Amino acid sequence: MLITKILSRNAEMYGQEICLTEINLDLQEKHNVTWLEYELIENNPAGEYRREMTWQVFDEKANRLANLLLKRGIKKGDKVAILLMNCLEWLPIYFGILKAGALAVPLNFRYTAEEIKYCLDLSDSVALIFGPEFIGRIEAIFDQLSHVKTLFFAGENRPSFAENYDRLTANCSSEDPRVELTGDDDAAIYFSSGTTGFPKAILHTHRGLLAACCTEVKHHGQNREDNFLCIPPLYHTGAKMHWFGSLLAGSRAVLLRGIKPEWILKTVSEEKITIVWLLVPWAQDILDAIENKEVDLKDYDLSQWRLMHIGAQPVPPSLIHRWKKHFPDHLYDTNYGLSESAGPGCVHLGLENIHKVGAIGIAGYGWETKIVDGDGLPVAQGQIGELAVKGPGVMKCYYNDPEATAEVIRDGWLLTGDMARLDEDGFIYLVDRKKDVIISGGENIYPVQVEDFLRTHDAIKDAAVIGLPDDRLGEIAAAIIELKPGHKYTEEEITKFCAPIPRYKRPRKIIFDRVFRNPTGKIEKPRLREKYGAANLVAEQTKK
């Protein structure tokens, strides 16, 4: 059964039950009222901060979009991109694209206009559905796109260069178009980047998406009584593939727009959430808020919350030990995966293995793992090598890039680029990344992009960006700046210069020093990391 068929099944079996709820507590805070009082404010119905959708409406909205796309000549195999913030419309749009036989192409909402154009061109997308937050970025590029001929706008105050998504879909049939699909058909393209910062288009089949559903339910035991809190962006495989467990179980989920600790706890309490997936910074913020007495757990009903799991970056064992002090009854899991492996789950700790906190775990349901040397041969237990995974969620390929595909897929095994070791009990521990990608708060930062920007400064001779350990974010980006002779700048001045860079990419630490390069001209990042590791950095600052 394909995931589109699972949706249709849920609509038939549980049609009048709520499946998705969107909550925007920022709107509520602006009115400074309780949830109940908010419903009574004139011209501000509860729908502005809390909206719901049944399985039947979900399925009908997906069908309407599918029929609109087919009516517009978008056929099986075409690509349709999605550029939306998390909202109630996101998942019906995703499934509508799949039901039309087209490929869904989710875009990172942090992308600049140039990055959006690059990904649309790279994926050969013929249509784009976007929201109001992106009008300016799309306006800057819409007449330069190579393949996009159709622009649908989901929201109010439609720009003149796009069509009204809501009006057009409302006039389309809500019946399933019944496009014939198989597990081998292409389903979606996601984006990932290497250390150069240039995204690769990752192609997944319908079989791979279905495998993610099965893996999630097998790992976390979702059932009809569960309610999953989804906070991370839906363009990310991690968020959506965890929600796929709710899809398969026919259970509820809540999309929370905001990450304040009190918002998360309030939503868990009011919506009777049972499963929450957090990033390390959010878990850290919740614990800090509890320990600083900014929130009081006695103010919330959290008795039904059974599972907290974390992914997207290495998890400090100390964080989980702190968590268990405040939430001793919670089950815990950590999930490892890549966009190339259909998201999280190819490796997971396992609910019963909290004593192994610090490890990323063991092979996930339906997956195999091994740690190999540079020749692809398994290394001895305890030795460091590159983690390779094999299973039903391995991508079909990098779209239109056979050379890049051949570099990472060998005999069905996906080379992850992560260096790891295996302990005596068969648990996998990450040691370092083969690539230079910095993972900060669950988001990838690609050093070359930031380095290239820094070098546009007239006074900067050279620049290197590395990751430094951070208790809250896992890592922060640190920029080593080598100034041209005769120039003096402060950390504050360089930080101000970096303002045009998206906030999550900006260096959080500026270090003025020489940038080491080897004889071939490559930056010696291992040497820089050794010099500016956490302990050494503190020592350097103490000397000053």
In short:
The protein is an alpha/beta fold and 544 residues long.
Distance linking N and C termini: 64 Å
CATH domain class of the largest domain: Alpha Beta
Strand content: 25-35%
The gyration radius over C-alpha positions equals 24 Å
* Count of DSSP-assigned helices: 18
CATH fold-level topology of the largest domain: Rossmann fold
Largest sheet: 9 strands, mixed
Helix-strand makeup class = alpha/beta
* CATH structural architecture of the largest domain: 3-Layer(aba) Sandwich
Mean pLDDT: 89
Low-pLDDT segments, ≥5 res: 32-47
Q: What is the strand arrangement across the widest sheet?
A: 2-1-11-10-12-13-14-15-16
Provide key terms for this protein.
single chain; 544 residues; alpha/beta; Rossmann fold; Luciferase, domain 3; GMP Synthetase, Chain A, domain 3; nine-stranded mixed beta sheet; five-stranded parallel beta sheet; globular
List the helices and strands and how they pair.
Layout lengths: L2 H12 L3 E6 L1 H7 L3 H4 L11 E5 H17 L7 E5 L6 H10 L3 E4 L6 H10 L2 E6 L4 H5 L10 E4 L9 E2 H6 L15 E8 L5 E7 H15 L6 E4 L6 H13 L2 E5 L4 H11 L3 E4 L1 H12 L15 E5 L5 H10 L4 E8 L4 E6 L13 E2 L4 E5 L12 E6 L6 E2 L3 H7 E2 L2 E10 L5 E6 L4 E3 L2 E3 L1 H8 L5 E11 L3 E10 L7 H7 L11 E4 L12 H7 L2 H10 L1
Parallel strand pairs: 1-11, 3-4, 3-5, 5-6, 6-7, 10-11, 10-12, 12-13, 13-14, 26-27
Antiparallel strand pairs: 1-2, 8-9, 9-19, 14-15, 15-16, 17-18, 18-21, 20-21, 21-22, 23-24, 25-26
Helix pairs in contact: 1-4, 4-5, 9-10, 11-12, 12-13
